[in-house]
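TICKET: design request
STATUS: open
ATTACHED STRUCTURE:
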């Protein structure tokens, strides 16, 4: 009987930018959304609390409460 090794898991490319890795999400922080949840909502959200690791319960003006994964928002650019 031949020794069969399990196939290696494919490498997953990460697309995190320096901005994403520098942002430490916390309750009360306003963040910019990559995509607004509706055509009538704002493109920013207030982080309320972390429901699960990397998943934030948030509030979006013009939309309401939404759960956002870490990849759905980023730091608001200072002007």
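STATUS: resolved
RESOLUTION: sequence designed for all positions
ATTACHED SEQUENCE:
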């Amino acid at each position: 009987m031949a020794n069969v090794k399990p196939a290696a898991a494919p490498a997953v490319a990460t697309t995190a930018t320096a901005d994403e890795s520098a942002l430490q999400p916390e309750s009360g922080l306003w963040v910019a959304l990559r995509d607004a949840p509706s055509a009538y909502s704002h493109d920013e959200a207030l982080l309320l609390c972390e429901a699960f690791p990397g998943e934030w319960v948030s509030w979006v003006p013009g939309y309401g409460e939404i759960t956002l994964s870490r990849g759905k928002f980023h730091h608001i650019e200072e002007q």
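CLOSING REMARK: The chain is about 5% helix and 35% strand. Residues 18-22 form the longest helix (5 residues).
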